[in-house]
Structures
1.
Amino acid sequence: MSLLNKILAKAKQEGFIAFDEYMDICLYYPNHGYYNNKNISFDKRKSDFITAPELSSVYAESIIEFYLNCKKYKNINNIVEFGAGSGELACNFLKNIDKNFIPKKYFIIEKSLHLRKQQKEKVNKILKDERNVVEWIENIANINDVFIIANEVFDAIPSKIFVKDNNNFYEKVIKIKNNSLYFSKIACDKNIKNLIQKIERRINMQFPNNYMFEINFQYEKFLNDIFSGANNFIFFIADYGYGEKELFHKDRNFGTLQFYKNHEKIKSCFINPGSFDISISVDFSNLFRIAKKYNISLLSYTTQAEFLINTKIVENSIKYSKDINEINTLKTLLFPTDMGENFKIMLFCDNMSNEFNIPFKDYRHKL
């Protein structure tokens, strides 16, 4: 049975499907979801989008630079990477780090069995002695002294979609008619309305009618697993998104939901589900609030350009100064109109020495 037929059957049986459930099915359903099928590829020639670790090894070298700086002030000897893509970041990290500082373990937590297979093949092909450091695990429970990496993970965590219509708030859901899927809406309950009103008070703006927006209710479960499962950690998050006031700007009235195929945006998410990527901009203010609930410290919130420039990406790129492709890659990673400012870096820590100095500009006032 195709993924579309599975979705149609579920919508028919339950009356409707909430968008976060639909997104989860489209991305992760075993053997049919976008990230969980045999055709998934992060190869630049075959992929539908670009991620920073796949562009150049200098991205990994900047993370290494920051990791080594952290090690001077905090006893971290392990790595955990969530959603490791093709395994490129893991390979470049272990291949380029000073042999004296190779972590005890480089753990990978990967939901997709097909990507896990690709990662293992790449690790065995590229790495030699370092391959013994890499281990795939199911969760982060009871891992200590760890540097945690989540590169473009939160944008793929399914969110709910809401809309204000005729001064009332509704959740957008998916229904079926004449064997086809379409967007509909259901009234929000009191708890959801209260949550939305809290957002309005924080941003000092009432959402106008016909305003569409997303709220993620799955961040907290993801972060809870990390904050309760790891001890003595630094958590590195790289993703595109905004602080709350920018995310819910009055002019962003269609939300941030995007569908990608062949490096281009597509309009409908109902044609061939499972064949394209779905992503939603990260609400970094939400991540920050959740972390505070768990008494986790925010080390920094900054732009990708700020982070990379201050972790020696320019210096590390000199060896490629005659390679036009690498020069263009550097521009993609750093230029404001590309990844430089659209992507943010958020760093959490359960405890850190007061002597530790963050070398890049901090933008937490935007949270």
Note: The first strand starts at residue 17 and ends at 18.
2.
Amino acid sequence: MRARATTWGVGLVAVGAALWIGCGGSSPETTGGGAAGSAARTAWGEPDLTGVWQGQALGAQSGKDTFNLAALEALYTPEARARMQKMSAKDDPALRCAPPPFPHAAKLGRRLQIVQSPGFAFVFTEAYPIARIIPTTGRPHTPAEYLFPSYMGDSSARWEGDTLVVDVIAFNGEGWLASPQDRPTGASTGVWLTSPAMHIVERWRRVDADTLEYRASVEDPDLLTMAWETPTITLRRQPVDVIDEALCRPEDGPDTYLTRLGS
């Protein structure tokens, strides 16, 4: 039986440009660090990525660009820039409770949880109550006739040594790659569009018992002139065995969330 938090409270959880009302509890007892090193394996022989992980919040704020967003901004086509100039923070889909896609979700500094079973990895985010189901056997993407565009896209993954390489397609083009507060230059609009043509390749690698690394390459031929590479995100194991639920309230609207964030 897993440990559970012994006390619970209600807190406001900032996610990207949105604010969720979630339950934030004290940490339950630690689950332990597990086997040391990247050689740790599941009972069926795959590299073991399971656990609750958290990294530092990254972005382009307060004069620091810790997520390579200046490079991303420079890759938008003139047509995409023209669209972005007509938009504002209020157009961020996260302000209407749309979940941010990865790699955006990975850079927010919120906890995520990975659960594995033979042939699958499940990624749950505390930033928004969403689950990714990632086949890890290298099987093809969902056949086109059954493929439905979504915020998280359709994943197909394979193992390259100890690294899980995830190929993601079939996005709905409604998520943003960063938050409205992320403005790496004086001319930044804080708008980070994606399109249904987006294609992402992620790399997840457990470095040691308590460290997980994530990085991604993002292609979007409808909006970007070439691929954008994220920096490596370092995630540390957390002394809990379950993430908290976070709930968004669409009825609060963008203005409410932006006010709470001081924007």
Note: The chain is about 10% helix and 30% strand.
